[in-house]
Amino acid sequence: MRNEFSELPPLLRALSPVETRRAHASAARTPQVPLDDLPPLWTALARVGGRLPPANRSLTDPVRSIPPGEGFPHPACLRTGPRFDVEVPRGGYAWWYIDAMSDCGNYGLTIIAFVGSVFSPYYVGSGKIHPEDHVAINVALYGRKRRWAMTERGHRSLDRSANHFRVGPSHIDWDGGCLSLGIEERGAVFGEPVRGRIRIHPEALVSRSFPLDPDGLHRWHPIAARARIEVAFDRPGISWTGDAYVDSNFGAEPMEKGFRTWQWSRHHVPGGAAVFYEGTRTDGSQFALSLRIDRAGLVTPRETPSLARLRTTNWLMPRAIRSDGPAQVLKTWEDTPFYARSAAQTRIDGHTALAVHESLSLTRFISPPVQFMLPFRMPRRAF
Question: Which segments of the chain does DSSP mark as H helices, in order?
């Protein structure tokens, strides 16, 4: 008997009644990504172009710890602070990352400033020739008044120096002791205003970066493992204080050329922070960093706790986090086909720790369905 559903074009299959799609999925030979509980736009678009490739199906623990030594000075951090003027070569990238959780536990945020925006379909489509023509400041607010904004802009919208970074109307400034952010963005899809001020006061600064590959083409710099943050937004109307974390990544080649997957987490503990960064490179080799960063900014290798598995995301992204005992997801902040970010509770050195965790699949990122979806989440303006 002819299967009329299978003969429909992909977009019409996506728009068919939920019951029809569920019945077809249960009869299929290969498992499909469970999309029915996701937002409608993502649900429909994810089906265009076929099934997503698998993420890292299993999370093994073959490497207990690779001692990172003392790291090495990098042009981006020879001086203290974020050094927004780092050179980004053709095909490369740089980003500066901030995450924070409120003291009350009801709010969180992440902000990422990009040059050579690593997750940009426009940068991929351009051949990654001019990184400064693909810049953005991504703002994600979590809690009751959730917002997500990321508008990519061209080089004419970029102004940066060692202590200043501006893309369009939003900017980040470093005065030697405080990061000040002025945010003026529009939310993804519906364009709601996202406008506010943020001040971040690091407890101490780290002046070392660490290689993620043998040739040092990809490097990570934990700028401030612990900081205090003050958040005041009038659109939406929220204000809170809490604990924050700041780091940066630099690459001399496309990120998907260097890595297949990674898991990263930072854990705030009484003596400072623990950071675990591990994954699989494209050649199949693995990397793992296990670091203790004290409140004075001193970085030392540490033992790696066991791998605690977290529940898989709606997009079937595996998640696992380092913890001395059971760990749990407090809130999934970002749940996308190739990336998940979560607030979690772990056990580190005998203490209950609040952690931020991310899981990334670059195999999925470069797949056609994901590349098709991204412009809906990430509009672009020439200036």
Answer: 10-14, 18-27, 40-47, 121-125, 255-258, 362-365, 368-377
What pLDDT, on a 0 to 100 scale, did the predictor assign at position 78? 39
Q: Output DSSP code: residue 52.
A: P
Confidence bin at 27 (pLDDT 50/70/90): very low
CATH, range 93-381: 2.40.370.10
Cβ count near 267 (within 10 Å): 29
Tens digits of per-residue pLDDT, 107-138?
999 999 999 999 899 999 899 999 999 999 99
SS3 122: helix
Pairing assessment for the beta strands 328-335 and 319-322 based on DSSP bridges: unpaired
Round to whole Å and give the CA distance between 280 and 12: 37
What are the φ and ψ backbone dihedral angles of 131, each rounded to 5 degrees?
A: -60, -35
What sections of 2-144 are H helices per DSSP?
A: 10-14, 18-27, 40-47, 121-125
- Residue 287 to residue 271: CA distance in whole angstroms: 26
The domains of the chain are located at: 93-381
Cα 334 to chain centroid distance, Å, stands at 9
DSSP 248-278: EEEESS-HHHHEEEEEEEEEEETTEEEEEEE
pTM of the predicted protein model: 0.82
Judge whether residue 313 has pLDDT over 90: yes
8 Å CB contact between 102 and 360: no
